[in-house]
Amino acid sequence: MRTFGLDVGTRTVGVALSDALGMTAQTLTTLRRAGLRTDLAALRKLAQTHEVTRAVVGLPLNMDGSEGASAARSRAFGAALARALEVEVHYWDERLSTVAAHRALRESDLSGERRRALVDQVAAALILQGWLDAQRPTAPDESE
Questions:
Q1: How many domains does the chain have?
Q2: Residue 94's pLDDT band (cuts 50, 70, 90)
Q3: Do 56 and 131 meet the contact criterion of CB atoms below 8 Å apart?
Q4: End-to-end alpha-carbon separation of the chain, Å?
Q5: Would you say 84 and 40 are in contact if contact means Cβ atoms under 8 Å apart?
Q6: Is 140 inside any structural domain?
Q7: Least confident residue range of 56-70, 96-110, 130-144
Q8: Is the pLDDT of residue 52 over 70?
Q9: Is residue 141 one of the residues assigned to a domain?
Q10: Structural domain that includes position 10
Q11: What CATH number should be reported for the domain holding residue 118?
Q12: Checking CA distances to 143, which of 9, 83, 91, 132 falls within 20 to 30 Å?
């Protein structure tokens, strides 16, 4: 059972994919937005290829934790994704994920152009990894 991580923007969708065990997130691709129907068809094809059964959509909350227009657009995209792909959709707070992605890529030896091409995928992987980590049961406290 694999999981998509999606960083949904107005121009692109960064896509990440979990490993089969649901332990790690890897970057997959960046889709250029071309209309909801086209975007969903591209994601459906990727989901079938990689046997994806659920998706985690980044939820761009305001810094105070409230939801604004961007969060509403992400929720609408997630609802359309759930219907079109028949997958379980979860949402994950993506505040500062793009900032973290830029920081991580700046530390690499990639050119500026290559970093710009990868930032949405890296943000999607950070969103997905955060969600995957939160799903793991916590180990009992050894001090008890």
A1: 1
A2: confident
A3: yes
A4: 34
A5: yes
A6: no
A7: 96-110
A8: yes
A9: no
A10: 2-135
A11: 3.30.420.140
A12: 132
The span from the CA of 78 to the CA of 7, in Å, is 11
What pLDDT sits at residue 110? 59
Question: Computed over its alpha carbons, how large is the radius of gyration of the chain?
Answer: 15
3-class secondary structure, 6: strand
Fill in the amino acid letter for 110: L
Residue 142 included in any domain: no
- Picking from 60, 78, 56, the residue whose alpha carbon sits closest to that of residue 68 is 60
Rounded Cα–Cα distance for residues 47 and 111 (Å)? 30
Confidence bin at 138 (pLDDT 50/70/90): confident
pTM (two decimals): 0.85
Round to whole Å and give the CA distance between 36 and 78: 11
Residues in the chain: 144
Q: Phi and psi at residue 14, in whole multiples of 5°? A: -80, 135
Cα(9)–Cα(18) distance, integer angstroms: 20
- Whether 144 maps to a domain, the answer reads no
Return the pLDDT at 142. Answer: 54
DSSP state of 107: T
